Amino acid sequence: MTLQLHATPEEVMRAVDALRDFARAQCLSEKTVFDLALALEECASNIVNHAFKRDAGQKFSVTFDRNGSDIFIELRDGGPCFDPTGVECKPCASEDEPPGGWGIQLVHYYMDALHYTRDGNENVLRLTKRLTTQPGTT
Amino acid sequence: MSLEIQIQDSVVAANAATTVKLSGSLDTVTAPELERHLTPLLAQQGVKDLVFDLAKLKFISSAGLRVFAMARKQLKERGGQATFIHLQPQIREVFDIIKALPGVAVFKDIDELDRYLAARQRSHLEQ
Question: Quick check: A31 contacting B, CB < 8 Å?
Answer without folding.
Answer: yes
